[in-house]
Model the fold of this input.
Amino acid sequence: MVDKEGLLQHFHDNPFLQINHMELVDAGEDWAQMELKVYEGSLNPLGLVHGGALFTLADSAGGAAAHTDGRVYVTLSSSFTFLHSALPGDTVRAKGTVRRRGQTTCYVNVDVTNQKEELLASGNYTFFHIPEMDGRFN
Done:
């Protein structure tokens, strides 16, 4: 069962996400949604949202979705496709949905959209469970 408040607090307290203006906004059993309100630091030299920002947002949403079972995971592998640019002023959301849980891995799909629900990117992530760290963040 998901400890939604604990998960939200854990991600809220993450300095990396704070620096990058990313926030876990909602979560439930086997899913989580992150949000980035695009700011100047999110942009590449062309004035578009940097692909690394979209990838990081998606990876974090996927990790949060995996973590909804209360176990600790790290990213093992990923495949990510960029489909459309995000622009200054956009609100970008990444929703991770668990597709399969195993004893040691968790497979998650993540879609990244803007405030108009346009698909910006999509990815698949495999997360590895680290049992010796379970309970550390609950």
Q: What stands out?
A: The first helix runs from residue 4 to 12. Residues 4-133 form a domain with the Thiol Ester Dehydrase; Chain A fold (CATH 3.10.129.10). The mean pLDDT is 93. The radius of gyration is 14 Å.
